[in-house]
Amino acid sequence: MKNKPSNIRLGIFGFGCVGQGLYDVLQTIEQAGIEVAPICVKDKEKPRSLPASAFTYNPQDLLQDESITLFAELISDADEAYSIVKQALVAGKTIVSANKKMLATHLPELIKLQQNYNGTLLYEAAVGGSIPIIRTLESYYSSETLQRVSGILNGSSNYILSKMESEGLSYSLALQQAQKLGFAEADPTLDVGGFDTVNKLSLIAAHAFGVTVKPELILRFGIDVVGEEDLEAAATIEARIRLVAFAEVNPFNELNLHVLPTFVPAQRELYHVVNETNGVTIDPVFAGEQFIKGRGAGSHPTGSAVWADVSAAISGYRYAYRKTKIKTIVLNQDKKITIYLRCPGGASLPEAAWENLVKIQETGEATSFTADISVKELQSIQTDLAANHIFIAQIAAEQAVNIALKLKQKAEVAYS
After folding, report:
1. pTM for the full model?
2. Where is the Homoserine dehydrogenase catalytic domain (predicted)?
C-alpha cells in the first residue's frame, strides 16, 4: 500500500487469484485508510508480483499481532482456513473469508463463535463472486418469507456449457479453455462435479431460510459427463442446460435443496446467463421475483466482493442470522422432480422408484429417458448413475412431454 497515515491494519492470508485481486482493489482506494500488514503465504519459492518483504510465512505473525483487528482469509485449504477463522473469532476479531467449503462445513459452529466471543465473520465473496447475494438475503429479505432461491453459482461450469453451446466445443476442449483463462482449476472436480455449488447453496439456505444444512446432505450432480447430444436435446425445446442450485419451501415449511444440470427455458432469466457470469433469482412471497446477475469468477470481481465485506466490517456491519433463530423451516428431500437421463450404449438405468419412465430417444450410442423420481430416491442411486456415466438434468414436466415429441419429429425428418 501507499505510505500514508492509516487507522486500520488489515491482515491478509493468501495471495492467489483472490488475494491479488483484493490487493489491486485496495491500491485504487486511497481514502480507505487501510494499511496492509505483511501478507501471509505458504510457499516461499513461488514467484509473486510483490517483493519478499511484503510477505510472512507464519499465520501467527498476523493472528498474534494486537495491532491487527481485521483479517481477510483467502486461502484454498479448507482445514487451514478453518483454523485461522476460528482463532480470529475466539479472539473477538473481525475476519472476511472466501472459502466456501470451510464455511459450509462449519457454519453452525462459526455462528456460535461469533455470538460467544463477539467476533464478526463476513463471506460475500464465497457465494456469488461479485454478486451481493448474501447481503441481499441477510439485510433486505431478513424479515420477508421467501418461496425459493435458485441460480447459477459456478462460473467455471457456466463457461464450459456456454462454449459448448456457442462454439460447438467438446467438453474437454471447453474445460481446457476455462483452465487456460483461470476460470477452472487444474483439478476441476469441485467445479464441474457440483461440489462448489453445493457449498454455496448451503450458505444461501442459512440466510434465505434459516436452515443450516451439511453439504453432503444436498443432492448433487455435475456437468462432467454432459455431451453434445444433451445440449442439442435442450435446444429442440428452446432451452439451455445450466448447472442450477435450487432451494424451495413448500406450504408445510419443508425445504428442498438440490444442485442439478437443468433445462432452463428461454423465458427464464438464467437462460441468458453465459460464460463465467453468475445469476440468482429470489422469489419472495410479497415482493415478487428479483434477479441479480454478475461476474462469478476472476481475480478482480471476487476481490471486489472481499473489499465490499472489508468495507462493511469497518463500518460495523455483521450478519444477524435472524431466520436461523426462528427455526420454522425443516429440510425435507421427498419432493418429486422430473428428470432427463442419457445412458451411454451398454449402460442401463439402476433399479429405483421410477415413475412415468419414458424412452424419448435411442441411437446406437445412447438411450435417453424422462422420468419422475423423488430427490431422496435420486440421491440414493447417485453413485450408480455416476459409475455408469449417465447424464441427468432436471426438466419441467411440460418440457418432458414436449421434448419427446420434438425428438420424434426430428428423427422422422432425418429418416425421410
Report:
1. 0.94
2. 132-310
